[in-house]
Design a protein that fits this description.
mainly alpha; Eukaryotic RPB6 RNA polymerase subunit; three-stranded mixed β-sheet; 4 helices; Rpo6/Rpb6; transcription; DNA binding
């Protein structure tokens, strides 16, 4: 069943409003000055002033990555432990590997049956051969093996 909606008609027609607007526009144009040109000219002058105040940079600047060397196996970039986002990413990736048939790298307890629980256990034991790359905005990065974290 379809519901039919009925609109109430107002006292004035839309055509009447259009004719009134056209008559008002013609009276302004009879002076010979177009108001839209004046507004456009003033906006362009304001935009020029704004662009003079701020420096613009080209986007074609080369971005090169450089590795930070740590001689004594210490973490220079970021905290000394894994962040919750890094843990989630590693757990998810390892869980996917396990679900596709990858071998388990540590001896696990019998109560761990889910791939996510096994991946968390392997991460806690630091037996995964995975490293994390932390990148700074200036292009410096450090590859951090899981064994280095606290």
């Amino acid at each position: 069943m379809a519901i039919k909606r009925i609109r109430k008609k107002s006292g004035t027609n839309k055509g009447d409003n259009i004719e009134k607007n056209n008559n008002e526009d013609n009276s302004e144009n009879s002076l010979g000055v177009d108001s839209t040109e004046i507004q456009l000219e003033s906006k362009t002058k304001e935009e020029e002033d704004i662009t003079k105040k701020y420096k613009t940079y080209e986007a074609d600047v080369d971005f090169k990555l450089r590795e930070v060397d740590s001689k004594s196996e210490e973490i220079i970039i970021g905290p000394n432990r894994l962040t919750r986002f890094e843990k989630a990413r590693i757990t998810g990736a390892r869980s996917l590997q396990l679900s596709l048939g990858a071998p388990i790298l540590t001896k696990i307890p019998l109560e761990l049956t889910d791939t996510i629980m096994i991946a968390r256990y392997e991460l806690d034991k630091k037996s995964l051969p995975i490293s994390i790359r932390r990148i700074l905005p200036n292009g410096l990065y450090q590859d951090i093996p899981i064994g280095w974290t606290v």
